[in-house]
Amino acid sequence: MVTLESTSDYWRVWFYVLESIGLAVQLVSASQARNLKGRPKTDRLDAMWLARLTQWGMLRPSLVPPAAIRRVRDFTRARTDLVRERTRCLQRLEKLLEDAMVKITSVARDGLKAKSAVAMVQALIAGERDPRTIADLAKGPLRGKRDQLAEALDGMFDSHHGVIAQMLLDQVAFLDQRIKQMEDQAIAALAQVEESWGVDATGETGPGRGTGPDSQVLAAAYRLAEIPGVSLWLAIVIIAEITLDMTLFPTAAHLVSWIGLCRSATQSGARHGKGKQKKGNSYARAAAGQAALGAAGTDTFLGERYRRIARRRGKAIAQVAVARSIMIIAWHLLSDPQARYRDLGPDWHARRTNRDKKIRTHLQGLKALGVTVAITDDEHAA
What we know:
The protein is built from 16 helices and six strands. It is mostly helical. The chain folds into four domains: 2-62, no CATH class; 68-191; 204-335, no CATH class; 354-381, no CATH class.
């Protein structure tokens, strides 16, 4: 067993080289391998201390995915970085238009990502300055807002704005191509991972198998994509971050804690503290949060769960709670390839509510306010 301390990115080379020659390698956090305070510190003494801790079994290894999953993860993370860069370019373009007193984004709900907004900017670049003519380029729902668009387009856009805007549009188009390329590469890389394959209704298995609803075993990504709010791409991102081997996480709670969707426990005697927010895996947490927002607008159990919590504790806490539920579901689906997602329905909480208990609760609340209510048997039965 070879133990490496995770120091920046320097561990990667040695981990991959030692792994490639067949050695058992584990990566440990520096907080796990910290030496005793007051002891002398040299590289040799640190290595000896790591060896002793490894021999005594006192180190908890960090998660390093297999090489095949790491390839998928490299593509998904590269796509995430490209999407962020594209967002920055769109923000620069919006700032440029505001400098020219053009307020398209105040009318267009989707901002400069909308095709109509791009067409209007291209018309401005081409030299068109009539707000009514440019507003007529609107399509879909924006056609009903042409008067507002004409007012928003009446600015001071000139030729030098057009040069910079064209450069930014070209950069966005280039990034769109690269984003699509990374998506295709990630899908192809995951198809090479045997553990992600499904089994068709005919019993055949392999890349591209197990994608239909009548499949004996659904492919891993398609299994997760059945969860409300989880698209096929988000399913691939989740697999790339948490891997397909759920034995790395003894329970679903371990997975949720590793991602950082719960606070650390702080308890002493009868006192239970709030705990600190964990760092966790930011990529997996972002994917789970995005899926939670997607599920929020659905007429499903997860959608109703989001709405119930949002009413009492706010949207941010509701998003984290639903994201946690999604990752718990994902753990169970990946632990058992035969499992399939079954929605409990938006009325699940209502069906489990005891009517008599609810009546007693409301009566106690009214009594506390000094109101006396008498309920007859007929009303109770109704």
